[in-house]
Structure formats: C-alpha cells, structure tokens
Amino acid sequence: MKSAVDLVTLQDLLGREKPATIIEFGSYAGGCALWYADTLKCFGVKSHVYSLDITPEYLHETAKKRDEITFITADVSKDMEKVLPEKMLKELPHPWFISEDCHVRLEKSLGHLEPFMKPGDYMLVEDTHPLSNANYPGQGSTSSDFDEAGLGKHDDLRNFLKARPGKFLVDCHYTDFFGYNGSPMMNSYLKRV
Questions:
Q1: Who's near 109: CB < 8 A, 6+ residues apart?
Q2: What is residue 157's three-state secondary structure?
Q3: How far apart are CA 40 and CA 61, in angstroms?
Q4: Do the beta carbons of residue 74 and residue 56 sit within 8 Å?
C-alpha cells in the first residue's frame, strides 16, 4: 500500500543506513515487511523485521513463511511492554529502522521504543501530510470511510518531538527526496542523534 515515491525513498534509506533491526507498526497483509526483508537481502544486509498489527487476519501466506520476519499480534496502544519487553529491546542489534503506520498516539507506540534507540537509528511516522488518506486516529486498512487526516497526526508527531528536545533531527535527504515534503511523510523521516 505504499506509493512508488515512498518505495524509492525507503530503498535509498535501507541501502544507506543498513538497519539490522526493523520494527514496523501496522502489518496488514505483510507486504511491506516482506519488501523490507527482500530489499535488505539485495543489499547484503543481515536484518530481522518485527511487524506488529492488531490482527493477523489479513497476513499473506508468503509473508508468514519468511524466517527473517516475525509477525506479532498486539494492540500497540496497550501491549507494548508485553510484546516488546525491555530485555528484548536491549538485545536487538542496531541500527534500527522503525516504521509507524498503525494510527495510534505516538506516545503509546514510539514512546515505548524511544528510550532504547541509539544515535543513528531512524524512525518514520507515516501519513503525517494533511492530504494523506488516513483518518487519524483509528483509521485502519479495514475501514470503509477514508478521510483526509488534516494535521492530527503531524501535530501528534510535533508533540512527541517537543517532549524529547534535541533527540531527533528531521532528515531532509529523505523527506525532500522528490521535492520539499514530496510524500505523505511530511517532516517525519527522523534520525536519533
């Protein structure tokens, strides 16, 4: 469900940053997790993808068969400590790439991971552009009523970053890959510093 613009930008990021761990919020059918794993394999990067979603109902069989992908069923608004415990997060190899595309408040999802991030790790908050097709919060792939998001998710990101002054920088190489904020990810390719 990603655009060609997003796939090219993400491919560049994966090739440059070579994440050893990817944590994805919002699996849906598992296509993106599969694409992450395949792309990193093409770059010769040993990596593992952890993909979380509230339901495994839509996961494709091909994605479920991959050894380098772990699908986790969880409600990231309340299950983070249970499914991604502190001991596990301390042991996951860096650099990390975190993709947030589950449409819950960022303090619930990314707030749990941020203390374990190291300088050089990246995170992407998807659908922060006000014209992206994502009703926020609560919009899921199974919703029949897709509305423009407005600035809700972008404002949530700004509040998340304000609570962590000096910890993240917007990486304009990725946000502006196809022109100033030329994707649904407005100011949301973030590097931990």
A1: 25, 76, 77, 80, 100, 102
A2: helix
A3: 20
A4: no
